[in-house]
């Protein structure tokens, strides 16, 4: 097996010069570096990743800590991370079954979280005593955001404004909101919807047009207990059943006999669940009811009709997360907050209101 010492002997230089040339760190004369790299290739040199890791104190690995591995948004977030990591010769490990304390024994240079809630939980549990460079994707829910951690978000407030503008231009004014949380939750989409809908609904109507699928929103409704996240409230390791909650929201929509002409859903998966169930209940989409969702993932194409959805640009968020994390790892300057602009992806689930 060829070693760096073999390369150094053939090139007539020291082992430290070979290391600098191969690691692309420190100064090596251009012609000398080119010769070292050529000799390394001729000798079939392949660095031992464990040895390199020990020498550089770097693993060239990033951990994406994510428990909801089947969530379309997280999948596209991960794809963006892979793209940016590959350009920087890094690997991204996708994991969510580890408890936070197990991260200490994981060989990674930094961590990326999919949301403010996961980042806050990590920092509160172990982050203060075990400090790895960390970055989080975010959605504007920064009311309890952990200090000292960079976040990359897409502007959900602006996104809600774009959705309302789009719907109002098509004659929609009575617009319901479908969410997996109670209306009292610190969630930017709830605040932004209430800010917009106050011009179209009476104050006492707002709660009725808010379709929150949670134990707190629907006290005494046993259907909510079908969802593990509601039975085991507060357990961070249970993935949310957005599809199922979307279906239940459709049932509640009919039970309340709402005259809404449009519905905005928390994400694409919840919207697909709502769409399938509302059609089963006899509503035509978009003829009777228009639907718009957040996220803009590949899931929107699974609807019939295809969903109109607000893209939060998960791939770009993923790319930016890696970019900022690597700056943090390499002790380069970076900003603590980056905000991307959402864009509306027009599908077939919205129709003009007929007069």
Automatic annotation (TrEMBL):
Keyword flag DNA-binding? yes
Q: List where the protein spans the membrane.
A: none
GO MF terms here are: DNA-binding transcription factor activity; transcription cis-regulatory region binding
Protein name as catalogued: LacI family transcriptional regulator
Organism of derivation: Candidatus Eubacterium avistercoris
Concerning SMART domains, the annotation shows: HTH_LACI
Q: Which residues form the HTH lacI-type domain?
A: 2-56
Matching entries from Gene3D superfamilies are given as: 3.40.50.2300, lambda repressor-like DNA-binding domains (1.10.260.40)
Tell me which UniProt keywords the record has, alphabetically. DNA-binding, Repressor, Transcription, Transcription regulation
One of its Pfam families is LacI
Q: Tell me if Repressor is a UniProt keyword of this record.
A: yes
